[in-house]
Design brief:
Structural class: alpha/beta
Order of helices and strands: HHHEHHEEHHHE
Number of strands: 4
Low-confidence stretches: none
Largest sheet: 4 strands, mixed
Strand content: 5-15%
Number of helices: 8
Mean pLDDT: 94
Radius of gyration: 16 Å
Shape: globular
Strand order of the largest sheet: 3-2-1-4
Length: 168
């Protein structure tokens, strides 16, 4: 059953609203943090921000988690040489954060670890600290990946470091 309040939130969220939480200076800081992170491990991070889901998707029960899985595929986060991609997905309308990792990483890092980091980020975001929450999340992910997937001499950057804004 569709919650009308959720549908209204998605249907009427202005398409520019993401800029309030993620202005260009925050996007630049995230890009820099991702680049710095990837020097320390062999993983590939992709940071995606989506304002709201299509009202039709909400009406049919799409969750932010399901959408994160679609974005993981659409952005080809799974398409790295060592199956070492990690998606950080922010969905603003539902106040959701999801972190998904490719199968190479999931062999060593369990989903509860990603969920813990996502919760830390959500807590910062609830306080309006989007820069701090994003950078803290990237730092926590960096620690995990550096432990299990240290950088190699051939540490190629396979995915863009710039956060992507998903527009409907």
């Amino acid at each position: 059953m569709v919650k009308l309040s959720r549908w209204l939130k998605h249907a009427f969220m202005p398409p520019w609203c993401w800029r309030l939480s993620f202005p260009s200076d925050v996007l630049n800081a995230i890009e820099k943090a991702v680049k710095h992170s990837e020097y320390q491990h062999s993983g590939e991070l992709r940071f995606a921000i989506e304002n709201a889901l299509s009202p039709g998707w909400v009406w049919h029960g799409m969750t932010a988690r399901h959408r994160a899985t679609e974005i993981f595929s659409n952005l080809r986060v799974w398409d790295t040489e060592e199956n070492s991609g990690v998606l950080i997905y922010i969905q603003l309308a539902d106040h959701e954060v999801h972190i998904l990792a490719d199968r190479g990483i999931n062999k060593c890092v369990a989903q509860p670890e990603w969920d813990r980091i996502a919760q830390l980020m959500r807590q910062e975001f609830q306080q309006g600290r989007f820069r701090e929450g994003s950078l803290q999340g990237i730092q926590e992910i960096t620690r995990l990946l550096a432990k299990h997937f240290p950088a190699t001499s051939e540490n190629i950057n396979e995915l863009p470091n710039r956060p992507v804004i998903i527009k409907r």
